[in-house]
Amino acid sequence: MARHIYHCPLRWSDMDAFGHVNNVVFLRYLEEARIDFMFRLRPADGSPSFSGGSVVARHEIDYLRPLVHRHEPVVVESWVTRIRSASLTIAYEVKEAEGSDLVYVRASTVVVPYDLAAGRPRRITPEEKAHLQRYLPEQPTVDEDALVG
């Protein structure tokens, strides 16, 4: 499974009165990573895929440890966990660095493609689905002969 890697700088204004990055700021980090991820998925051949809008239908965040300000960026890894006809779920880990096991946040976002001109949600196109599937975890193969007793 491929993961999208985004290096997210920390800003002094991300800190709160308790000396760590405020919980709501993590939503901004996830947004930056998600936008970078979606634009990089867009084909360079002029295809309209991923050029329309999208809306966030749901966020889920687990805060695992505090993050204090530093000069080095954090790494946000993103991948797709679910593709439906008119939505997808993106999972994230906000990490100390690339390859690090130190995770500050685990999160997921349900994203709905949106037709801005029509003012309503739209379906994921086959082309978009093909791009997104590269970021799905590999499914274990099932030995069908072993299932037949």
From TrEMBL:
Q: Name one Pfam family in it.
A: 4HBT_2
- Judging by the UniProt lineage, the source's domain of life is Bacteria
Q: Which PANTHER family match?
A: 4-HYDROXYBENZOYL-COA THIOESTERASE FAMILY MEMBER (PTHR31793), LONG-CHAIN ACYL-COA THIOESTERASE FADM (PTHR31793:SF24)
Gene3D superfamilies according to UniProt: Hotdog Thioesterase (3.10.129.10)
InterPro entries annotated for this entry? 4-hydroxybenzoyl-CoA_TE, HotDog_dom_sf
- Name of the protein in its database record: Acyl-CoA thioesterase
